[in-house]
Amino acid sequence: MRLGLALGMLLALGGCGRTGDAAVASAGGEPSAARVEAGRKLFARCAGCHEVGPNAGNIFGPQLNGVLGRKAGSAAGYSYSPALKESALVWDERNLAAFIRDSEAVIPGNKMRFMNFMSEQQAGEIVAFLATQDGPAATAR
Fold it and tell me: Domain limits of the chain?
């Protein structure tokens, strides 16, 4: 009975067999090394606007260290659009991947403009990489 209930809940949440539900983790709860590496490579598409790592700062977009679990529009020192500042959204794997794919659909009126038509899998791989970037941001530039 418990197995049927758990399976039903998984299916209801859409989490069974869908690669695009962001950084779908391995059984241990962590994304695989291959998924993280794929995301690191794909992040090059984001690096013109966003930084990660020990010296990350805000450039055209906010730095993304520790983005998972952070309230949208709250990285210190970045001038966000009113839409992001007023959002109640807290970044998790699912909503961050959705935002990467279509930011306007997730938070209408935001100023991120990424027109690369990324697949669900690719967006999830970027999120898997970002999940490894939990260090503090550098001071404002």
Answer: 2-130
Q: Which residue has the tokens 């909503």?
A: 95
Give the architecture-level CATH label for domain 2-130. Answer: Orthogonal Bundle (1.10)
Q: How far is CA 39 from CA 50, 73, 126, 139, in A?
A: 14, 23, 4, 25
- Whether the model pTM is above 0.70: yes
Report the DSSP beta bridge partners of residue 90: 71
Q: How far apart are CA 91 and CA 19, in angstroms?
A: 18
What is the tens place of the pLDDT at every residue in 57-103?
A: 999 999 999 999 999 999 999 999 999 999 999 999 999 999 999 99
What pLDDT is attached to residue 137? 58
